[in-house]
Amino acid sequence: MKIAFIGGGNMASALIGGLLQKGYAAQDISVVEVDPGARERLTARFGVSSHAAPDAKTAGSDVVLVAVKPQQLRTAAESLLPLLRSQLVVTIAAGIRSADLSRWLGAYRRIVRAMPNTPALVLAGVSVLYPMPSVTPEERHMAEGILGAVGSTLWVEREELMDAVTAVSGSGPAYVFYFIEALEQAGHDLGLTAADARRLSLETFFGAVQLARNSGEQPAVLRERVTSRGGTTERALRSMEAGRVKPLIIEAVRQAADRSRELGDELGRD
Fold it and tell me: CB under 8 Å to 102, separation ≥6 — which residues?
């Protein structure tokens, strides 16, 4: 399978690195990147071919993965339009709906929309994919193979769910980092060194996530098991409840989903 990346930023680099670790050949991967320095780095790091604009390598690919910013997607689509024959097009641009990309590509319908998240940079991401109805099972397998190189994958059959996906998992790492920041700050304020506060926060978060993943129990059950009546954890959780931390988090995720829908409306407008 020959893959052409349009855009050579962090997510494209993560995907290329993951694919190479999975055994894909560097000569089967090409990257279109406008920045000459980035092209040099991609070739030096991965051994892939890099190009300033879509060309014969792009035209001869089986999959074109568009990894540019949402605001750049329409311009990228215009450059791809003359080169598309039967390639599968995978887009990871947040907010842009597949129908709008299809329109920019001259009613091209072999499109999978994907939303990876930044833990893909360490091969621990989760990517959610939505296929346009004309995408074949074989093409779904191709898309899943590429995104699965940097973590787990999940398919949704209704595109409107991608706004929720963006809010939960696409933006989700930032929420986790925000909570880690708060734990670190609290530890430091209570007298721990900055290094120890950071280590305790990271290891605690990592261990709790591993426990949640491996136990099979609901998070609420695990939380209750840690919370002794009259103890320290109960005091902390009562403070969070009084501050409406959970409703505020839920509302924040709703706001992110709303913004995802707004971006789709704004950027998809003719």
Answer: 108, 109, 111, 132
pLDDT at 23 over 90: yes
pLDDT digits (tens, 9 = 90+) for 71-122: 999 999 999 999 999 999 999 998 899 999 999 999 999 999 999 999 999 9
Amino acid at 254: R
Nearest to 66 by CA among 28, 98, 27, 35: 98
Q: Which residue has the tokens 């059959």?
A: 157
Residue 14 token pair: 């993560």
Residue among 177, 96, 97, 90 nearest 140 (CA): 90
Q: Which residues contact 145 (CB under 8 A, 6 or more apart)?
A: 1
Q: pLDDT-based confidence at 251, cuts 50/70/90?
A: very high
Place of tokens 């024959």: 85
> Residue 104, CB half-sphere, CA atoms under 13 Å: how many?
22
